Q: What sequence folds into this?
C-alpha cells in the first residue's frame, strides 16, 4: 500500500491551519447542536470538506467516511476522519482538540494521524512501523502500579442516557489511582497514552472516527487496545487502552 506519509502530514497540517483560522475567529463562527450534548461548527464542516477533497483526490481508490459528511460508496478501504475531535472544547476556545485521520484497508488500520493544532503536536503511525510525535519515536509509560497511575476517560455515554454511564466505573477507578483526567478529545487522549503522559484511557459509546487513528498510534507505541473485558481489538463502543503494565489491575474494575 503506497501512501506518502510526509505528503499526508502536509495535508493534515494545512487542514489544521483551516481549523485554527476558525478558532481565532470563534465569535463569528456558527455553532449548532446536532443532537443533545453534541455540537458541530462551520470549522468541522470546512476541515472535513478540505480533507475529503485532498485525500480522495490523491487516493481515488479509497473511500471516505467523515463524521460530518458520512460515507462514500467504497467502504472496504477508506479514510476514516474526525475533522475536529473535541468540538465542544474548540467552541469554548479551549486548546485540547484535534484532527483525526486514519486509513483502514480491508478492516485493518494501516495509517493514523492525530494533529493538535493549538499545541502544534502531530502524532502519527503506520502499521508495524512505530509511533511518532513531531518526528520523535514515542512509547507508552513504564508505570507498573495502578495506585500511582494517571488515567483518563470521557462521558460520550451520557449523550445516550445509558444506565451504564461510566460514572460508577469512574468512581471505582478514581479511588485506586493517583490521577484522573477528562480532557475532551478521545483521539488526543489515546495519543497521550502513546506518549506516556497518561497510563490508561477508557470510554464507551464512541465512534470509529473518534478512535481509529489514536488506537493505531497507541498500539504502535506499545499500548494494549482492548474492550472492557481485555479482548484485543478496536471497539469504539467500549475501548480500553493501557500501557500494558496496568491492564491486569484495571480490568477487574471495568
Ligand atoms: C468527542 C470527543 C470527546 C468524547 C465525545 C466525542 P466530538 O468528539 O472525542 O472526548 O468524550 O464522546 O464525541 O464529538 O467533539 O468529535
Ligand atoms: Ca469525535
Ligand atoms: Ca468531531
A:
Amino acid at each position: 500500500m503506497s501512501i506518502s506519509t510526509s505528503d499526508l502530514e502536509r495535508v493534515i497540517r494545512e487542514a489544521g491551519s483551516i481549523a485554527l483560522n476558525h478558532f481565532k475567529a470563534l465569535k463569528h463562527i456558527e455553532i449548532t447542536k446536532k443532537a443533545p450534548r453534541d455540537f458541530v461548527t462551520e470549522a468541522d464542516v470546512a476541515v472535513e470538506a478540505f480533507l475529503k477533497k485532498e485525500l480522495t483526490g490523491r487516493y481515488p481508490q479509497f473511500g471516505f467516511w467523515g463524521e460530518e459528511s458520512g460515507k462514500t460508496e467504497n467502504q472496504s478501504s477508506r479514510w476514516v476522519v474526525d475533522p475536529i475531535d473535541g468540538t465542544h472544547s474548540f467552541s469554548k476556545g479551549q486548546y485540547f482538540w484535534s484532527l483525526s485521520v486514519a486509513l483502514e484497508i480491508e478492516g485493518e488500520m494501516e495509517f493514523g494521524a492525530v494533529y493538535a493544532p493549538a499545541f502544534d503536536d502531530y502524532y502519527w503511525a503506520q502499521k508495524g512501523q512505530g509511533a511518532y510525535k513531531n518526528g520523535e519515536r514515542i512509547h507508552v509509560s513504564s508505570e507498573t502500579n495502578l495506585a500511582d497511575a494517571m488515567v483518563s476517560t470521557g462521558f460520550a455515554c451520557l449523550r445516550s442516557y445509558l444506565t451504564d454511564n461510566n460514572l460508577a466505573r469512574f468512581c471505582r477507578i478514581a479511588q485506586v489511582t493517583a490521577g484522573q483526567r477528562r480532557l475532551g478529545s478521545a483521539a488526543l487522549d489515546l495519543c497521550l497514552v502513546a506518549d506516556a503522559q497518561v497510563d490508561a484511557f477508557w470510554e464507551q459509546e464512541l465512534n470509529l472516527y473518534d478512535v481509529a487513528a489514536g488506537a493505531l498510534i497507541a498500539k504502535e507505541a506499545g499500548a494494549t487496545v482492548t474492550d472492557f473485558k481485555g479482548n484485543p481489538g478496536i471497539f469504539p463502543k467500549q475501548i480500553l487502552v493501557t500501557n500494558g503494565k496496568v491492564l491486569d489491575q484495571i480490568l477487574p474494575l471495568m
